[in-house]
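Exercise 3.2. Students should predict the tertiary structure of the chain below and write it as structure tokens, then compare their answer with the key that follows.

Predict this chain's 3D structure.
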Amino acid sequence: MSWRARIEPAVRPIMQSWWRLSRGTTLGVRAIVTDRDGRIALVRHTYVRGWYLPGGGVERGEPVREALRRELAEEAGVDVTGPADLLGIYSNHASFRGDHVVLFSVRHWCACPTDHAGEIEAVDWFQPDALPHDTSPATLRRLREYAGTANPSEEW
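Answer key:
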């Protein structure tokens, strides 16, 4: 296990607190990435329990779609090769008052090497009707909205 994998779970919450204090607003990207069989990519982080849609933070000065491409490649080994469709912009005020998440749908992609360097414990593909029991509540809400079985919300 690399040094980063060992310290990431302890250091990440401290860094997230710093980012929240030093930035008035934070912005993240996530994606519903589907394969030809209709399966959905989910990731499990080393620093928090459960399965999540892949994505991450947008760096200062970074275009949102570029952040999406970078995060999907790093976390899930997904190289976006076609349009990423904007699904919504969500307020994530329950986690941090100034946080927002931009959600995309990605259907055109190819596999690429990942560089998650201890941040991602696992990447897997699931049928929408066979998601892991510990899929995060926000991920479940977004997938229900995407499937048309739940009304859209503005809250992450």
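Discussion points: The two ends are 33 Å apart (CA to CA). DSSP finds three helices and nine strands in the chain.
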